[in-house]
Amino acid sequence: RSISQARRTLGDGGGDGGGVLPPEPDVIFRALPSMVRFGDTTRLSWSAVNVNSCSVSGGGVVASGTSSPEGGYETNPIEAQTTFTLMCTGEGGSITKNATVNILPVWNEQ
Questions:
Q1: Is the peptide bond preceding residue 33 cis, with omega within 30 degrees of 0?
Q2: Would the pTM of this model clear 0.90, i.e. be above it?
Q3: Dihedrals φ, ψ of 73, to 5°?
Q4: Which of 5, 9, 36, 63 to pair with 87, CA 20 to 30 A apart?
């Protein structure tokens, strides 16, 4: 058997639908602004493809299960560096992305 024959045999999925896998999910997840003053809020936004649902958590935020593949969320007031996590699932698997928000330093001039 040649290598190309072996590839065709392995790649045919054994007769179970041609071996075509569902596409993997992909996500863009942002916190804008990513630097805020103590006590300010930020906006989380995401856009995802090949997903059925997304959930976001962190910093007191819990928006789960039914969040759409595209969305946004205004956070609670941020008082320390906070990392938000977006997890999306689809037929091709799941994907997790993080977005971190930092506190702007306060300068005291003397």
A1: yes
A2: no
A3: -155, 130
A4: 36
